[in-house]
Predict the structure of Acetylglutamate kinase.
Amino acid sequence: MSFASERYRLAAEQASTVARALPYLRRYAGATIVVKYGGHAMGDDVLAASFGRDIAALKQVGINPVVVHGGGPQINTMLKRLAIQSTFVEGLRVTDEAMVEVVEMVLAGSVNKQVTSLITRAGALAVGICGKDGGLIRARKLTRMIRDPDSNIERALDLGFVGEPAQIDIRVIHALTGAGLIPVIAPVGIGDDGQTYNINADTAASAIAAALQAHRLLMLTDVPGVLDANKELMPELTVAQVEAGIASGVITGGMIPKVENCVAAVRGGVKGATILDGRVEHACLLELFTEGGVGTMILG
Ligand SMILES: Nc1ncnc2c1ncn2[C@@H]1O[C@H](COP(=O)(O)OP(=O)(O)O)[C@@H](O)[C@H]1O
Ligand SMILES: CC(=O)N[C@@H](CCC(=O)OP(=O)(O)O)C(=O)O
């Protein structure tokens, strides 16, 4: 093959990739996409760099990504160094006064700046904030009820300074996106009394996506999506199917709050919430720029 025809072949290949992406670029032009980036995915440098490039690429093609990150494993590492024991109830970290200080330091400090740097290094401008900034997440103490299996009596569990979003003020997000910047949000909220609250990152992402009336919520995790009893990926789930999956014990553990937060997002007006594999390079682009997507979409 001559040099000229090889040059045309390569160019045709590249052009057809662009042509295939065009309908999706049109579909998502100007759309807000909230991406929840979990702490597990951050451990791998190659994947982390790929995540940063994907978010920067979304911005560069006229989409408005808003990143909400976790950092559970990073908090664990710091607590271990400080010799502080940590316990979880139904996937939530019981957070006392000493611990909430560490949680804020790690989430709103090192992790937030790490995620911001990933995106900025990829050529877009990201700004790291937490739920306290601009009054973004007003939180209230979360109370969890559990039923004693022996007595069948329900009682409230005290999780300490674990919060849930009471009110979301999106002005700071609009101020950033309006200036061409990408908000990167740590899930730490502020109570009416100024108290710092530790908020599960999936819950924060869902509440922010609903408040923004986002086009899509993408939850990056460490499985391909929601799997059925045969461990097969379920590409779509209705709210009724989610409820059935939990009732039958097919959806368990950390996947329960994840699907519930997706349901809350779609009920709150988000068009589609997807759980997808953050261990796959370019997971966000694969989900958004292909017809079927790759993960499990929870439909309203
Ligand atoms: N039906 C299911 N499909 C997929 N994963 C499930 C299912 N039921 C339970 N899981 C578990 O949920 C986990 C994801 O939740 P979690 O560990 O809390 O995620 P993250 O740390 O990303 O927030 C998976 O690693 C898997 O072990
Ligand atoms: C209340 C609560 O459990 N908060 C979480 C916040 C971080 C988080 O959710 O991080 P991942 O998404 O990486 O799991 C925690 O303390 O670990």
Notes: The chain has a mean pLDDT of 94. The pocket of N-acetyl-L-glutamyl 5-phosphate (ligand 2) is lined by residues 38-39, 70-72, 75, 92-93, 103, 162, 187, 198, 200-201 (CB under 6 Å).
